[in-house]
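Question:
Write out your own:
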Amino acid sequence: MARPEPPSSLSDPRELVDAYLDYYRAELLRKLDGLSAKDLRQSRLPSGWTPLELLGHLTWVERRWFQWGFAAEPQQDPWGDRGPDDRWHVADEDTLETLTARFTAQCDASRAVAADVPTERRAAVGGRFSTEAEAPSLGWILFHVLQEYARHVGQLDVVRELADGRVDD
């Protein structure tokens, strides 16, 4: 059963975006839960991505936008979710459990980067952004990441239905 959205009593934009990001982070994991090992590694879409690759991709999205992007923390390979064919990739030895642990740790790191930071503050220069002119605000980054989750979790709804017939509210 789908978890309820954040409460309708929330009205502060920052509280809303933080709550919805956490909602979609949890929804991603909930929708992956119960898929067989085969279904986690099998693509059902013409684009070719698998549910495990989606989990890996969103882990890297968090890192690229919050640590490398907003905080300008050096990253050895910020595009580590891309394979040699430029598609999303996870290693053969990666499992749902190992990828979930990485995802959860990365989400914690993202929350720490953004904690108590005003949404109007611009990203630091030197990581993903090389000039102040191209550095977006934290608010823009939060909304960008939120829309990416909404889109990908919606795609995962379709993949889940094709895999085992599960349809969420």
